[in-house]
Structure formats: C-alpha cells, structure tokens
Amino acid sequence: MKFSIGDKVSFLNEPGGGTITAFKGRAIAIVRMDDGLEIPFPVEQLVPKSRQNEKFNEAAKKIELPKIEPDIFLNEVKKIPVEKIIREKENTLPKKISKARTPIEDEVDLHIENLLPSHRGMSNAEIIDVQLRHFTKALDNAIRNNYYKIVFIHGVGKGRLREEIVAILKTYSGVTFRYASYEKYGWGATEVLLK
Fold it and tell me: Of the given ranges (74-78, 101-105, 159-163, 175-179), which has the lowest mean pLDDT?
C-alpha cells in the first residue's frame, strides 16, 4: 500500500498510530504520535486509519458515563460478607492437590570406566566410593525430579557394589528395589521404583 505525508495510520502489530510526517527511503516512515513524539516505523507494518474508526472514536468520546457516588459504592462493598465467602471457598477446594506424575525412567551405568576417564592407581575402596557417590547423586536427582523408575547397572563382580547400593536404598523411605530384568541385564543391575 502506498502512503503519503499527512496520512493517518495505525500500527499493524502494536497499539497506537499517528500521522506520517516523512519517509526514510521506501521502507521506513516517520510517524508523529498523538503525544508529538516522532518515531521511524516500517511501512509494511502500517495500516491506514479509516474515517469510520475516527468517527467511532469521536462518538465514543462524547458519551457520558453515569457518575457513581463514592460513598454509595463503599456502602455496597461493606455489605458483602467477605469472611463467609472465604470460608465457603475453602470448603469447596480439594484438601490435597496431587501432582500428576509423568512416568520418567532412567538408566545409570555405574561401571568405573563410564564414570572416570582413567582409574589407574585407584584402590578398590576408592573405586567403590566414586561409584557410590555417583549412585547417590543420580538417585537424589531422580527423586527430586519425580522419576518413576531408575535402573542402576553395577555388574556382577563379587557383589560388593550391589551390597552397598542395597544398604543405601534401605535408608531411603518411599523407594522399593529389586533385581532388574534378567533378560536385559543378567544379575548385574538393580531397579529402583520411586513412589
């Protein structure tokens, strides 16, 4: 659409508008707002103000709204039994709002090769300590983020890591655990279900 200097325009994606006072090239129009401020605005984002809208706005300005006496309004507000409304509202609210649980599952491999770039020179006790710290961190994260299930792959070995994991799991309330799927993990994984 072509615009000329003096055309009254509205902004396409924003409230407001004004009168075009100049152009900067073909793409930018300088628009003087009602408050006198002139701003550059892309021509493609301008819409011509229709005379019908102007007539409507003028007519709306002439309509007088009834005046409300402040004292009358305040007296009406005072008559509303606010405490009664609050009690009724509290009685209709459910006592406990339960959070919908999205079934989130995770799998954590505790083999030391997957946790550290190198474990050369570490004792077995140090290795198990790293694995248990990683286990505890992953379990706490699963609980905090409302996971449904998490599987810890610890391997078979001598069973020391699994024994430590079971001992830690017994200290947590709201969790149950069992051997994970034999077909998928053999005897080397523990499945933890979070309530």
Answer: 74-78
Long-range contacts (CB closer than 8 Å, 24 or more residues apart) made by 96-102: 99/146, 101/146, 101/148, 102/146
State the SS3 of 123-149. CHHHHHHHHHHHHHHHHHHHHHCCCCE
Lowest mean pLDDT among 8-17, 75-84, 134-143: 75-84
pLDDT of 53 > 60? The answer is: no
CATH of 105-194, one of 3.40.605.10, 3.40.50.2300, 3.30.70.330, 3.30.1370.110: 3.30.1370.110
Q: What is the pTM of this model?
A: 0.48
Strands annotated E in the chain: 8-11, 17-24, 28-33, 38-42, 46-48, 105-109, 149-153, 175-179, 189-194
Give the integer Cα–Cα distance in Å for 179 and 108.
14
Class of domain 8-62: mainly beta
Looking at residue 12, what is its pLDDT?
Answer: 79
Cα 107 from chain centroid (whole Å): 25
Which is nearest to 43 in space by CA: 27, 59, 60? Answer: 27
Q: Are 131 and 161 in contact (CB under 8 A)?
A: yes
